[in-house]
């Protein structure tokens, strides 16, 4: 009897396991690319099983939600630590601040689409990291600032592309790397002094 064929969903689950393992440092970027490519063309269950056989499956995060909606007026909100990044977010802010910190986030998809509606005093901050690219070209705004760093070094593999759309009528969007701790800044200055 021939082995059962896998579905698109089966392939997606295997890719999620691989991405989480890479995010935990269990796979290198090259290993991740190689295994994801193999998972996407896998035909049978054993084709997929061999790709994740050396990775722990217990404690895997739940399936990422399709959409997270945040409608916030006044105050501050944040997603930090090991939060599960969805496929899409719909964010409405007025007189409030929201911080999305991707430095320890569990990334299971290669693109996050965020639809924003920033009213007066609505501020969105994205804390990025290596391999996280932010595209805010499709956000229309009449007031407020949009500050997004330039594209990353072409040699750095892209882990997550954050695509922002929507509008801002008085809010700000800022994407920035995590702030360095004071001891890290001191160490950098000391190393620079040693190079002289």
Please give a structural write-up.
InterPro entries: DUF1707_SHOCT-like. Residues 5-56 form the DUF1707 domain. This is DUF1707 domain-containing protein. Pfam families: DUF1707. By secondary structure, this protein is of the alpha/beta class. It has two domains: 8-52; 67-176, no CATH class. 25% of the residues lie in helices and 36% in strands. The protein is built from four helices and eight strands; from the N terminus they run H-H-H-E-E-E-E-E-E-E-E-H. The chain has helices at residues 8-23, 29-40, 45-52, 182-194, and strands at residues 67-79, 88-101, 111-118, 122-127, 132-143, 146-147, 160-169, 172-176. Strands 1, 2, 3, 4, 5, 6, 7 and 8 form an eight-stranded parallel sheet that branches. Helix 1 (8-23) runs antiparallel to helix 2 (29-40). The longest helix has 16 residues, at 8-23. The chain starts with 7 loop residues before the first helix and ends with a helix. The mean pLDDT is 81.
């Amino acid at each position: 009897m021939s082995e059962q064929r896998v579905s698109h969903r089966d392939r997606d689950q295997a890719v999620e396991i691989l991405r989480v393992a890479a995010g935990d440092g269990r796979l290198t970027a090259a290993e991740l690319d190689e295994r994801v490519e193999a998972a996407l063309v896998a035909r049978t269950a054993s084709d997929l099983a061999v790709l994740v056989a050396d990775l722990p499956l217990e404690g895997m995060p739940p399936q990422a939600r399709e959409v997270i909606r945040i409608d916030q007026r006044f105050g501050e909100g944040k997603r930090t630590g090991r939060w599960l990044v969805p496929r899409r977010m719909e964010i409405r802010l007025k007189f409030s601040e929201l911080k999305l910190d991707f430095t320890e986030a569990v990334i299971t998809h290669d693109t996050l689409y965020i639809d924003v509606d920033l009213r007066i005093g609505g501020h969105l901050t994205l804390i990025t990291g290596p391999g996280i690219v932010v595209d805010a070209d499709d956000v229309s705004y009449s007031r407020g600032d949009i500050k997004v760093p330039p594209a990353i070094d072409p040699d750095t593999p892209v882990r997550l592309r954050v695509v922002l759309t929507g509008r801002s009528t008085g809010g700000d969007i800022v994407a920035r790397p995590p702030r360095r701790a004071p001891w890290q800044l001191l160490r950098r200055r000391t190393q620079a002094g040693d190079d002289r």
